[in-house]
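Hi F.,

I've been meaning to write this up properly since the lab meeting, where we talked about keeping a consistent format for the predictions we share between groups. The idea is simple: the sequence comes first, exactly as it goes in, then the structure tokens exactly as they come out, then a line or two of notes. No screenshots and no reformatting. I'm using this chain as the first example so we have something concrete to point to.
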Amino acid sequence: MPKTWTQKLSGGKAPHVVTLEKAFAGVPVGARLLIASPLLLDRTIAAIPRGSVQDVPVLRQQLARQHGADATCPVSTAIFLRIVAEAALERLGQGVPMSAITPFWRVIAQRTTLSAKLSCGDDFISLQREMEAAVPD
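Output, unedited:
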């Protein structure tokens, strides 16, 4: 039986830093690369204030600094962002109130490769961003 998104969110390795022996995804040899985790991204996104948005590259830079790394892996970050979003949507489908799910729309922009993969589609992201902009905390 395949894992649920919620199981994927809480599973996996803890965040860790590796030193690159070869260049990877625009990060040079010798750089210290943070491999985050779905839970780390989930907590980080949950802390973004209502009505605010944060670009993924800025989020990756912030996480790298916090963990003493030069960069955060863009590939695993995209995978983990999808897990965070789908787990939130899964919880929403189980009746958890919108206010209690991780607000992934504050990081995942509409009309991106990542948003196109999400089960909610761009309209959901656009609507949430519009609603938060209209009624901030």
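Notes:
The chain has one domain: 5-134.
The first strand starts at residue 16 and ends at 19.

If this format works for you, I'll send the rest the same way.

G.
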